[in-house]
Amino acid sequence: MRLSQSPAVKTGLSISVATGLYGISFGALAVSSGLTFWQTVALSALMFTGGSQFAFIGVIAGGGAGSAAFGAATLLGVRNIIYGMQMNAMARPRGWRKAAAAHVTIDESTATAIVQQDLAESRRGFWTAGLGIFILWNAFTVAGALLGDALGDPKAWGLDGAAVAAFLALLWPRLKSREPVAIAVVCALATVLVVPLVPPGVPILVAALVAGVWGWVGHRAEEPAA
Amino acid sequence: MSLWWWVLAACVVAYLSKLSGYLVPARILDKPRMGRVAAALTIGLLASLTAVNTFASGQQLVLDARVGALVAAAIALVLRAPFLVVVIAGAAAAALLRWTGMP
Asked: Is this structure's pTM higher than 0.95?
């Protein structure tokens, strides 16, 4: 099959554009949270997993320590282990391709791969989305970081409101049934309750503990995969 | 300088997380419980980050223009707006409320 005729490649390309574009909001928010231009660029190039990147700067913006930012970003990256296992079974990369595949294993590339009808299409979808997003996400991060630096006072432009919206938008698609909604509400409440009691950044780790225990002991029937 | 170390450490660990999925034999991690923990962690952390960024200012809880951003973003999401539009709606709401004098 010609690549241009592959539905998986088309899906991968449109997801790349949609996802890559919001690198601009990451770049702008990262510099307004207090990271330097190069720290912002390093996060997109080396960490390259949007949720964890937003978590890292979200903790820093709230006055949290680097260690708490590290903890939140790392815990949010745990789902990538599962994605890695799924992609290893589907894309079956060998040698250096395995190391490269791991780096572009994220929500969107995994999602593009698992909805395809056969393994060859899954592989095309995974690589198109993974590499496409990597290129655009990094390019738009640079643009956003330059823009954020030029804006001056981030609050006057509502950039702290933009961060709130970004987190809610990342959460939203996961709230498809009652149990995820319950987890979200309980963790948000736990967070708000402990904010006055512990140093900034730590409330997020408390919520992670609550969620982790919930997932570990939850005996509810598996939600059907959406 | 010390923030640089946390940035780099978080990057290294994020990559090792991804890579471990490719290296660990599937039967060790491929249990429903592991999937449940990962899914719950993701939801819990994102909910917590939303709450912190809306209501926390250091160790204080405050109601300010960011609440307007939360509401605007929720409305945009209900209307199925794409990610970037949701983010812009949040920023615009916060900026507008500040312009009217809200903290």
From this structure: no
